[in-house]
Design a protein that fits this description.
alpha+beta; BirA Bifunctional Protein, domain 2; 7-stranded mixed beta sheet; globular
């Protein structure tokens, strides 16, 4: 697996979509950034991120026949890491949100583009300013 790091991007998912439509990237390419200027969640809800305040990562995967379980598995895995390593009690709000103390901590965005799936994850680590979405 190969990963690319950028100081800032519009969106990690959109970056992978542009690669798919301009090149023929191999699956299992990851993209990590310090800041997104056009981050979004499901239903095009805004995802705000100050520089260095969030974990912002997308992974390019081969398409599967039934990909919808991947978002659930990613959310549960992220919650397990947070709860085990940071001693917090994060939980999942269906279908893809990660909550802690009844506040949204992060989420999963799964998108299909041609013969690929893009699995995006955003987790607020020390975000101070939030959008209304």
């Amino acid at each position: 697996m190969r990963s690319l790091f950028f100081d800032h991007l519009g969106s990690t998912n959109d970056f992978l979509k542009e690669l798919i439509n301009g090149l023929s990237p191999a699956p299992f390419l990851g993209v990590l950034t310090n800041r997104q200027t056009k981050g979004r969640g499901r239903l095009n809800r805004t995802w705000s991120s100050e520089k260095g305040s969030s974990f912002l990562y997308s992974l390019l995967l081969p398409d599967e026949k039934k990909p919808f379980h991947l978002g659930f598995v990613a959310a549960v895995s992220a919650i397990e890491v947070l709860n085990k390593n940071y001693s917090i009690e994060a939980f999942m709000k269906w279908p893809n949100d990660i909550y802690w103390q009844n506040k949204k901590l992060g989420g999963i965005l799964l998108e299909k583009e041609k013969e690929f799936l893009i699995l995006g994850i955003g987790i607020n680590l020390n975000q101070q300013i939030f959008s209304d979405d």
